[in-house]
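Researcher: Re-running this chain for the archive, since the previous output was lost when a drive failed. Same request as before.
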Amino acid sequence: MLFGSHSMNRRAFIASAAAGLAALADGQEVSVAFPNLRPMLDGIQPITDEERRARQEKARRLMRQHALDAIVCEGGASMFYFTGVRWSQGENALAWVLPASGETAWLVPEAAGDSARKAIRMGGEVRAWNAAAGVCTALAQLLRDRKARRAGLEEHVSFAVFDGLRREAPGVELLSADPITVGCRVIKSPAEIALMQRANDITIAAYKAVFPTMREGMTNHELSANVAAAYRALGVQGDAMVIFGKYTAFPHGSIQPQQLREGDIVLVDDGCTVEGYQSDITRTTVFGKPTARQREVWNLERKAQDAALAACRPGATCESVDAAARQVLVAAGFGPGYKLPGLPHRTGHGIGLEGHEWTYLVKGNKTRIEPGMCFSDEPTIAIYGEFGIRLEDCMYATETGAHMFTAQSPAIDQPFG
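Model: Regenerated structure tokens:
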């Protein structure tokens, strides 16, 4: 997927194949059932508390390097990464403070105190805050008690908390926690890679089951519902953006109603979640026999994807990977740069606990690639008024180069390797 994040914060769950047969609440098409699919979650190894404690210690080392006294997280991916606690953002804010030294601390809302306290898994001081005083008052006092003069706020901390905290704690310098949180999360451990591998395997299994359900006249929403049903049968929750025909030239789809016709390009994009870790895969094919033009552009897209994969090596800059894919397209007459027809967006995004996270394969990003970094590889070719082609597989960097989680598509009429 190119822009935005996945449409929901998914949790893995076991469901029977019969659950795939369900009418959508708004009266859209009924999805098909997939009785031959079975859950693919056997043998999953969740992230251990030992690994999470090691993450916290790495964060402390980075805090000392960047002269930060503490970092603050609200509910979201970084809190889950460091503590294993899942908590949605909202008026009942749950905050976690990791100081550079000393005991960690939690701020739990009195309005949801029982559930919040039960959610905490790895200890630390627990303080309550109430609606009268507000979370920012309690958080300001906590930072003062920890003698934090420079505090980093994780990127998903709400502006309301930031704004309130700078009023309540004028003596605390508030900074970005990105050097800490991104510095930890951008390098995936073998355990994280394994969870992402399973999510990718499940996505390919879902797509393989769904593509044969394409038929003349079906809507893109119907095919998307089939993908969701296949995911349920495979034991996870997931969805997909589906685009037909000329609308495939819009990287994020179109609100226009679409029905499948002979000769249409078909683009299916998105993924699922396993223990919080995401997949993101796009397959582009044609319904019927491809034209010479469709095949030519598809083959060019595959060359661009290959170029990005080859360029993704330790020590290379992220922008150089983007440039490698873009050079293939420019040599064929597209672009130049980010101009249309051609590749209007970055070649890839980081992926892990979020479908889109740091760091990005885009011009201007001089971050050096290190083993353990994970990216999408998706150098779309968009030709407005005609069609678009996107091939997206995710890759992880190793000491010797990058490897795909999934087998690339070999041809326009063979979407699966």
